Amino acid sequence: MFHKDTFRLIRKTFNRFFSLLMIVLIGSSFMMGLLSSRPIMEQSVDRYNDDRKLQDFQIYSSYGFDDNDIRALRKQDFVEDLFASKMVDVFSENEYGDVLVTRVEEVNRPMNDFQLISGRLPERSDELVIVSNSIGDSSHLLGSKLRLYLDDEDLSEKLVNTEYEIVGMAKTPCYMAKIQGTSNLKNLELDLIVYIPNNNFKAEYYTTVYFTVPEAMDLDSYGDDYHDFIVEKGDEVKIFALNQQDNLKETLLAEYREKIGEGEQELEEKKAEGQAKLDEAKQKLDDAKIQIIAAQTQLDTMRTAISTGTARISTLQRQYDNDYAAIDKRIKDVESKDAQGRSFQTIFAETLSDYATYNALKNIKNSQSISPYAENITRIENENAEYRNRLNGDLYPQRNELNEIINSPSATAEEKQTASDQLIEVNRQITELETQITVNELLIENLKNMDDQSGTGNVDELIADLDRKYGGSIETVYISQTSLSQDLLRLEATREEIRIANEAIARINLEISSAEAEIASGQIEYEAGEKEYREGVILFNEEIEKAEAEIRKAYQDLEELPDAKWMVLDRDSHYSSYMFASNASQMGAIGTYMPILFYLVAALVCMTTMTRLVDEQRGQIGIFRALGFSKWEVTSKYLIYALLASLIGCVLGIVFGMMVFPTVIYQTWRLMYDLPDMMMLFPIENVIICVVAFTGLMLLVTYFVVRKTLNEEPSQLLRPKAPKNARKTFIENITFIWRRLSFTSKITARNLIRYKSRFFMTVIGVAGCTGLLVVGWGIKDSIADVVAIQFGQIYNHDYVINLENDHNIEEINTILENDLNNEYFAGIMTYSSKVYLDDKEKVITMEVLDARSGNDVFNLRETDCKTPLKMNNTGVIVSQKFAKINGIKAGDQITIESSTGLKAKVKVNEICEMYFQHYIYISNEYYETVFREPVHYNCIAVKTSDGENLRQSLEGVEGVESMVDFSAVTKQFNTMIEALNYIILVIILTAGSLAFVVLINLTQVNISERIREIATLKVLGFRNHEINSYIFKEIMLLSVIGGVIGLPLGVLEHHFIMGVIDMEMIRFGTNIKLMSFLYAYVITIVFTLIVLMFTRKPLRKIEMIESLKSVE
Amino acid sequence: MSFIEFKNVSKVYKMGEVEIRALDDISFEIEKGEFVVVLGASGAGKTTILNILGGMDLATSGSVVVDGKDISKANEKELTEYRRFDIGFVFQFYNLVQNLTARENVELAVQICHDPMDSRFVLKMVGLEDRMDNFPSQLSGGEQQRVAIARAVAKNPKLLLCDEPTGALDYKTGKQVLKVLQDMCFKQNMTVVMITHNTALAEMGQKIIRVRSGNIESVTINENPMDAEDIEY
Asked: Residue A255 to residues A249, A258, A260, A554: CA-CA distances in angstroms?
């Protein structure tokens, strides 16, 4: 009976019941939906992972894997299924000319499988399947061709086919994210994943190994159990990998050592060979030198000969000149005595013949022979014949011979000298003999004459004739003339000697000049040879040095030989998997905290509604109490009322929430991830939380409200409740303003102060709405901030060039300096260091750089006031988030590691604003002071207006490893921001429904409470709009106030949520844009206006008759 | 032509299948400046007359002409204007706005019409000069009703309608209120229609219209209306 009354009450106050139900519905749907989104997201993907047999671990090796490695791995306990796979990163070009960075994998895969979503699997070896999400809408590509290629290599050395037909589309848990990570091609972003038939791969080694761990599949991939299990297994895998990689390195080291040994031997051989060649050349040069010296000595001898010769000539000349004068006088003397004026020679010849005649005559006289003449003639003729024989047979040939010697170029000066000496002697003999012959011939003639005339002859007479003829004794004349002739001959000989000597000198001079020329050319030749030799030596040394350097390098390389690194990756290392997991956990965090607001508002709505209900029911309550019902019985009526409202609300809310939120959220994440179909879950624990939370809240609030009234005496209850005393507001003290206010404004002002719970309900509800909207846009702004501030403001550079080492940094610096597009750049030594705190050590990235250029490429600034911070040599700058997490303040001392692992204490000078990852900034000088170690740059940050140009100019430069472009990071964040638009839409709808429920509740309560007043005003002739404004002004004002309060509230909530979805490495921005506040506020006011529009009708429906009724 | 003419007015309420005739073809006339008392028991139809006369309800048939204006055919907007400018209304339960002071309640009415009286003057007229700035909850019932009368009168209406103005008041204060109403009529020459079930009050009126079961029982002209202070009830 009593409960019948409850249902009647519900029917009678259905609006109120409905608004209670609605707020519970909205609150619980929101709570349920958000709480369930995370498990739904995670489990859908978990099942997908299991279906596709996603690996638990993946191992990369810096050397690839061979069958031995695979066999060893398969034997391990932690391996369940294993798949050794080959892959290669290439460029691809489709029929539309799009060039994409493409990862090529094997199509036939027992693990990390893909799911074919359209088309078919490859049947021929030149067909392939593409992962569809990688290039957006790709259905039109089915059936088209794809050409694979590499820039700097021939791809056909790696793959059998390089042209394929696309026959299928697939999706895969390995590449769920729209951004698949980085390729091995110059660190370019991957655009496309394709699967080609396995037999296309020519490589001998496997690129990577995937494997699952036994029992892991039974665990939820995103649960703590799986995480702990995998961490534990991961340690085992890593230990195995370490052993394996050490063995591999040993093998490799031995191999390398052998090769280097061979190289060294080869070098030694070449060295010896080269040295021998050089020595030979040297010998030749020395010989040439000796020859030149010999020639020079000879030349000197010749010169000496010339000077000797010249000296002798002058002696001879002098002698000749003296002799000539004397002899000439004597000749002239003889000639002058001759009557006929004949020359001395003629005279002398006659004298000789006469003297011979004289002698013959004497002989004849002495011998008294019969025919003396004939006898003598014969003898003289014999004598002549003998002379001629001597001449022809001996002297002439001798003379010719000597002449030949003297004229011969090959004869030495000495020989020539000797020859010329002999020649003089020979000539003298020839002249003597020839003269003798001439004399003898004359004699023969005389004798013949005498014989003819004086056959009878008188010898003495003849002799006397002769003496007479010569003015005395013929003998004397003969002796004197013979002596003169002798002298003359000698003179002649001297002259001849002089001539020969002169000739010899001339000849020697000639020889000297030719010898000199010869020496000069020899010298030139020698010098050229020597130069060649010297160059040869340098070249040889250089080559040897080079070869030796190569060997040294090889040894160094050997020492620095990268460990045969086996990189063990679990799913968290998989880009998309990790991102998805952290996004899902963010959803979870939001789901946990966001419903608090709804909860609070639900409590206030419940309080307002139930208060009003109980007020209206006051008389009835009094009657029941008067009739003897217990307090508890009366209370239970209202508790049932509230219970029904909240239970129905909860059930509907849970159903509605599960229908809407997970789907919307899941679809939103689908923008970022290629997710499998959603798997609907009904997490029963969330249902319980929801029902208990809301029902409990409603019952509790109702209980307190009802109890308050029930505490009054029944007799009091039967009387109308003393109206709450109207109170003057503070504004009334300012009379001139107050008097000007319309009565609606006055009423509004007073009501606001009178009904505090309504005021708070509305203000909090509206503030919550505005706050939610601020949060919605704020989240977007914050994430946008990470990009905009981190990469736009703090990182004052666009690219980072990674260096292999700093050996070639001069050249790279020069290239950078000469590129006019570069605004500035700075070398950085970046390495992962540890910070030693009291009880733990934390990993952090160290950035060591020159203080001046560092302040260009990093715009470090204070966290709040954005004052620029300068690096200096007295301490380090620590990034904000790291400092916050670890409680580090400016002025603290912290212990950090150098790049080689030395520890040192440094002073924290400043804390800087930072959004992405943790950093310590330290200047070169300070680093070197603290660690006493030099700084070796390993990357260069560049701000440039033309990155592509820079990339090209650095292409192939030694020491440059890669160039990282920040635009890829920006792209990734922008996709995320796009996805957030849907979340914002959901937030707007949610915020709207919150505002609606609160405002509609307020108007209902207000109207129901003031029906009498409104009816009265109508009777008094107030027009509709005047009556509207009587109710609206208050709501509008509350909305405006709520909105204003909502803005800072939103900021707080936003701060809070950003703190919750916090990722270890990212600090989201806390700034919200002015426009976001504006949107939030304007939308709130629009919601209010919509509610007011709906309120007009019930206001008009209020009957004026109400005013005539008695007060209850 | 009279100031108010009620001609063959019927009012039928439909409650589902049932038709209730609240007024059954009634006619009467009221002259300008008259103090009229409509008398009848509960459910006789007097409130319906008041509603129709006050522009709060429309007659089902017949015509109602007030000062030459037929309001029986008026639309909602015209009725609002009629109430606003032509009618002053005094409720049984005063119906003051709790959140406004006495003076503000009067000003509330003053705000909306063309030729209002000064609110202070009107309040003085009803003897509440000193209580002007009090809220209704701080006033006694009689005082509240006087504020209500002041609020109605301040509009300077053509017709002052009073619905059981003393119904919620004790005898003494009731008489004070009746006196105020009578003064309004006789001194300010305002047409006053007072509805009551109390026959004792009928003597005050210049015209007494008796209503019973939706019909006019009688219309009596009282040449010598009794002074409100002399009425005993």
From this structure: 10, 5, 9, 12
Chain B residues with CB inside 8 Å of A725's CB? 135, 137
> Would strands B87-90 and B159-163 be described as parallel, antiparallel, or unpaired?
parallel
Share of chain B above pLDDT 70, in %: 100
Domain-terminating residue out of A933, A965, A997: A965
Q: Do B104 and A743 touch (CB under 8 A)?
A: yes
Specify whether A447 is located in the same domain as A504: yes
Q: Do B84 and A1104 count as a contact with CB atoms less than 8 A apart?
A: no
Q: What is the pLDDT of residue A933?
A: 87
Read off the CATH number of the domain in which B91 is found: 3.40.50.300
For residue A555 the two structure tokens come to: 């040894």
Residues A1006, A919 within the same domain: no
Q: Is B81 an 8 Å CB contact of chain A?
A: yes
CB neighbour class for A71 (10 Å; exposed up to 12, middle 13-18, buried from 19): exposed
* Residues of A in Cβ contact (< 8 Å) with B80: 1018, 1021-1024
Nearest CB among A746, A1021, A1107 relative to B112 is that of A1021
pLDDT value for A186:
61
Residue B172 belongs to domain spanning = 4-230
Q: Do A723 and B137 touch (CB under 8 A)?
A: yes
Residue A642's pLDDT is what? 92
Question: Is residue A1078 domain-resident?
Answer: yes
Interchain CB contact of A742 with B (< 8 Å): yes
Tell me how far the alpha carbon of residue A867 is from its chain's centroid: 32
Interface contact B182, partner A, CB < 8 A: no
- Residue with the two structure tokens 């020899």: A522
Residue A137: its pLDDT value, please? 57
Averaged pLDDT in 10-residue chunks for chain A of 1112 residues: 77 86 89 86 86 85 82 87 90 80 88 85 90 66 87 84 90 75 69 89 87 85 83 85 81 82 88 89 89 88 86 87 85 81 80 77 67 74 88 87 80 77 83 82 77 62 78 80 82 82 84 87 88 89 88 81 74 72 77 81 86 85 85 88 93 90 80 80 88 92 89 76 65 74 79 80 87 86 77 83 80 83 84 80 84 82 82 88 86 87 88 85 90 88 84 79 72 69 78 85 85 88 88 89 91 80 67 89 92 89 80 57
Task: Decide if A726 touches B, using CB distance below 8 A.
Answer: yes
Count of domains in chain B? 1
Residue at A921 is within a domain: yes
Same domain, A868 and A750: no
CB contact under 8 A, A726 and B135: yes
The domain boundary residue, chosen from A906, A930, A965: A965
What b-and-e string marks burial along A103-126, b requiring 16 or more CB atoms within 10 Å of the CB?
bbbbbebebbbbeeeebebbeeeb
Distance set, CA A316 to CA A308, A423, A497 (Å)? 12, 16, 8
Question: B193 with B185: CB under 8 angstroms?
Answer: no
What per-residue confidence (pLDDT) applies to A372? 61
Residue B226 has pLDDT above 70, yes or no: yes
Q: Which of B79, B90, B108 to mutate to test the interface with A (most CBs of A within 10 A)?
A: B108
Helix (H) / strand (E) containing A293: helix A224-337
| Domain hosting residue A1016, numbered range | 734-792+967-1112
Question: Which uninterrupted H or E stretch holds A1077?
Answer: helix A1074-1101
Residue of A nearest to B168 (CA): A1110
Does residue A857 form part of some domain? yes
Q: Are residues A354 and A309 in the same domain?
A: yes
Mean pLDDT of chain B: 88
- Chosen from B99, B110, B155 to mutate, greatest number of chain A CBs within 10 A: B99
Q: Which residues of B touch A1104 (CB under 8 A)?
A: 51, 56-57
Inter-chain touch B108–A1020, beta carbons under 8 Å: yes
A890 plus A947 within the same structural domain: yes
A765 with A782, same domain: the answer is: yes
**What pLDDT shows up at residue A1048?**
92
Position A806 in a domain? yes
Work out how many domains chain A is built from and give that number: 4
* Nearest CB neighbour to B95, from listed A726, A1012, A1026: A1012
Gap from B222 CA to chain A (nearest CA, Å): 29
Please answer yes or no on whether A1022 and B98 come within 8 Å at the CB atom.
Answer: no
pLDDT for res B8:
92
Q: For residues A9 and A1006, what is the distance between their CA atoms, to the nearest angstrom?
A: 19
